[in-house]
Amino acid sequence: MYVDVYVFHTSEGSSLPLKIRLYNGQTFEIDRIKGVCRAASTKVGGTGMRYSVVIKGVETYLFDEGEGRWFVEARREAFGM
Amino acid sequence: MGRNILHCDMNNFYASVECMLDPSLKGIPVAVCGSVAERHGIVLAKNYPAKAYGVQTGEAVWQAKSKCPGLRVVEPHYDEYVKYSALARGIYSRFTDMVEPYGMDECWLDITSCEKLFGPPEKVADIIRETVKFELGLTISVGVSFNKIFAKLGSDLKKPDAVTVIAEDSFKEKIYGLPASDLVGVGRSTERVLAGAAIKTIGDLASADPRMLASKLGKNGLALWNFANGRDESRVARAGESPPVKSVGHGTTTVKDMESDGDVWPVILELTQDVGRRLRDIKMMAGGVAVNVRDSNLVCRQWRTPLSIPSTSAEVIAAAAFGLFHARYRWELPVRSITVGTFNLVPEGAAYAPRLWDNVELAERRERLGHCIDDIRRRFGKNSVRNCILCMPSTLPPEHAEIVMPTGMPC
To answer: Do residue B6 and residue B148 come from a single domain?
Structure first.
């Protein structure tokens, strides 16, 4: 699902997603970024810069599709909703 | 030193992109088809499950559905295809700057000088194949060989998601038993001519008398003989290098068949607006005009005429095209689609020899008018200046945003 993302842009040009906001306004902090690479999503389709993130103890992938669009692979139930 | 050439072919490109973007389509028969309402209702691409039912590219949607009742028909998303085509080229460019596109989904790569950096060519092919799959979720077939022709042949031999090597020292055993039609440049009509000379395989072609081939097929016959013998010296172009443009054209299928000259004229005029602008963009002028007409039985005919004064003027090109059509088309059947092309392109400002009665001054005024109209359209939008007749209801299909290919040319 597509999500809003709060991103920290470093002076070196890298982007670090800090938290995500779902369509209902609920916000979740990203506890940890475990890695980043360009990849395709095998679960929900689409491609982009893939951030391996941990949110509320759930490990999932957050994708930066480009042009400001981000999507997360996990379903909202995974975050205990 | 022998060359190392790769040919990367993205498998079922349009259909693969659709299935990658919507994983619910995976495993079910899918065909990407043009709009039936706009009379482009043919199969543009299909995935492997659809292929298993015998669905073929180019057939009508109803034909495909009768072969495969569960077929999922999806409409094309050209912007996505352009995006993924460019991303794949980006991956290829990490290995070499010699990346030559061949359509949206195929590329040749010359990796001759990359061996010390990335390893032997088969390994590079494998890395590229894996990278495209991982990063884009799409599969490619890669042909590895010592020339472009055999590299392309190799990428067709094993599909999907595979690497095929056709080596210089063993190519005869590998490909001489294949049908001659597998070779680049052997289309249906060439295949018929070759079959008439008892040439069925690439091996037959390689051992044929080149003089006999030249007498039957002209210089194409000699080229094919060289290809079959592994003698293709053509180089892979560098990324961004584009071959000189030889023709500029534009065509359309109208929403309703055209039944009179009055229906055809606005269509030709509309098409030539675009042709003229594109000629001016590349700073070339048309030395001749061609018209291709497809009637309601899908039979095509083409006529060509030279222009006495090279031009980019939509008005001049439209008049020449319509003149040809009016003189040659007999109206036995309504017209379904029409294409206006230009050929014998010469650079803007090139010298030419007008005939005594040619009005050079008028021709130059028309050229200036074309530039002026381009300028107005750039500033105020495409529809800010239009021929009056083009403001009337017509059989033209609704306008779509123009897609620009990664090579820079509109499609």
So the answer is: yes
Q: CB of A47 within 8 Å of any CB in chain B?
A: yes
Tokens 């040809």 -> residue: B324
Our CA-based measurement puts residue B230 at a distance from the nearest CA of chain A, in whole angstroms, of: 38
According to DSSP, the residues that pair with B60 across neighbouring strands are: B42
Q: Is B361 helix (H, G, I), strand (E, B) or coil?
A: helix
B400 domain residue, yes or no? no
Could you tell me which chain A residue has the CA closest to the CA of B22?
Answer: A45
Mutation target among A2, A38, A41, A67 for the B interface, most CBs of B within 10 A: A38
Provide the residue range defining the domain that includes B81.
Answer: 1-170
For residue A33, give how far its alpha carbon lies from the nearest alpha carbon of chain B (Å).
19
Identify from B94, B131, B134 which residue to disrupt to test chain A contact, counting A C-beta atoms within 10 A and taking the largest count: B134
Whether the model pTM is above 0.90: no
Q: Which domain holds residue A9?
A: 2-75
Name which of A39, A43, A44 is nearest B134 (Cβ-Cβ). A39
Whether residue A80 lies inside any domain: the answer is no
Measure the N-to-C terminal CA separation of chain B; round to a whole number of Å: 38
Considering only CA atoms, which of B251, B349, B270, B277 is closest in space to residue B309?
Answer: B349
Confirm or reject contact between B37 and chain A (CB < 8 A): no
**How many folded domains does chain A comprise?**
1
pLDDT tens, residue order, chain B (411 aa): 689 999 999 999 999 999 999 999 989 999 999 887 777 788 999 999 999 999 999 899 999 999 999 999 999 999 999 999 999 999 999 999 999 999 899 999 999 988 889 999 999 999 999 999 999 999 999 999 999 999 999 999 999 999 999 999 999 999 999 999 999 989 888 999 999 999 999 999 999 999 999 999 999 999 999 999 999 999 998 877 777 889 999 998 888 899 999 999 999 999 999 999 999 999 999 999 999 999 988 889 999 999 999 999 999 999 999 999 999 999 999 999 999 999 999 998 888 888 888 888 999 999 999 999 999 998 998 888 888 878 777 777 766 545 444 444 444
In a domain, B60, yes or no: yes
How many alpha carbons lie under 13 Å from residue A50 in its C-beta half-sphere? 20
